[in-house]
Here is the input.
Amino acid sequence: MNAAARLAAAADLQVGRVVLRGSATAVEQARATLPAALARMRWPAVGEDEILVLRRLAVRGDAAEIPARAAVAAGELARHAADPWSPAADSADAVRFRSQLDYRACLIHDLLAGTAARRWLWRHRAALLARPPADALADLLGEDALALPALLDRVAARAALPALWRALAAPAARELLHAIAAATGWGHAIAVALEPGASRATNVPQAAGPTPRAAAPPAASARFSLGVLAAGLPGKLPATDPRVVLHALLAQWSAAPAALARSDAGERLHETARELVGAAPTAAMTRPTANAARGAGPDAPASATT
Here is the structure.
């Protein structure tokens, strides 16, 4: 059996592909019993928020033996897992992400670098990688919209934030704003900022049920100050451009997230967007820091094991 599997936790097993070889009877028996049997196995332990990705497992046996042997083989691979940020990851048989944020930040980095489609560790994201890069980035950023500031903080720490802003087209930024609106309940404010003259908010989803509590702003909130965000905007854009509104939202989210739920939040967000497009970035805003190297971020491990 050859399998590409992703283990997000001991109780969360995702198998990408299984190839069975044997007699027709043996294959049919294995096909019928393997899913439930694999789910019952004791897979390698991972941290609460870690993600372990295995390249492949190859084991022999009958339908009753394969699950246990696969779990043992997975444990051996997990002990030698490489850091997905390291050069060793491409030749490794397993990689270990330290957290969901680390996982998404690494995938964003590879999408921006144009390397994601040829790296084995992203095979399980084939549907995402088949999309245009800007749409793929918007989908990835919106997977956990409440964690967006923290995710962008990790992207910024690895010096990839300017490239992200350049790659995020206006339609993709609008889709990301919709994902944020659905998760936070800030849909009215976002709709007003996108269309200040509109009499009512349209085409921007609202959160279902009680308004969720927004994620705390990132510790390094200076990364999302107006000056830094203005420096990341591509050329002259109107204040209603979705990319400008997204930047304005991040600035408000970092500085005063509670204000985004107020009745005048849309007008305030629009004013922040106008301030952004009127700001003149300085050289200091665009110059990278000494620590802005790949792997130098707060989530970068001391050694690589995937």
